[in-house]
Design a protein that fits this description.
alpha/beta, 151 residues, 12 strands, two-stranded parallel ribbon, single chain, Cathepsin D, subunit A, domain 1
Length: 151
């Protein structure tokens, strides 16, 4: 189960020390078969599953393993491909894991990776929506800009 600190009027100091607090935006390192990139991740407890942007997946390389999952968006449902990648949440110690996010065009959204409920529950994360932990360079956005400039 996840908790919003603000929703329950809690203070970080009142939380069980074993809980990891994350903000609405976090810095992650995504690793695939051909490399790693540092990028922005959006934390979204309304999303059942985590997903990765198509461009980010192209940057790190798709694994040989590919499955499919059903996803919901409002009233509609669709099948999406899943790929095995490694995600390292830099703000939280020991949160590096192999995951199978589904692939989605995230070019219109914030961040190339979306942390959904599947990962929030797995790591017992607490969300403080007033915090923005994204720091540094978004390598995926830099590559996208270079590609656009080259065209």
């Amino acid at each position: 189960m996840y908790y919003y600190i603000i929703k329950f009027n809690m203070k970080v100091s009142e939380l069980d020390e074993s809980r990891n607090v994350v903000g609405r935006l976090e810095t992650v390192v995504l690793t695939g078969t051909e490399g790693s990139v540092r990028t922005k991740a959006k934390i979204d407890p309304a999303a059942d599953r985590s997903n990765i942007g198509e461009f980010a997946l192209d940057c790190i390389g798709r694994s040989d393993y590919s499955g499919q999952t059903n996803t919901r968006a409002g009233e509609s449902s669709e099948k999406r491909d899943t790929y095995e990648i490694s995600v390292d949440l830099l703000n939280v110690e020991e949160v590096r894991v192999m995951v199978e996010p589904n692939e989605k065009d995230r070019s219109k959204y914030t961040g190339e990776f979306l942390f959904g409920m599947d990962l929030l529950e797995k790591f017992n994360l607490v969300i403080d929506p007033t915090v923005d932990n994204f720091e540094g360079i978004d390598e995926v956005e830099e590559r996208r800009e270079k590609m656009v400039d080259a065209q």
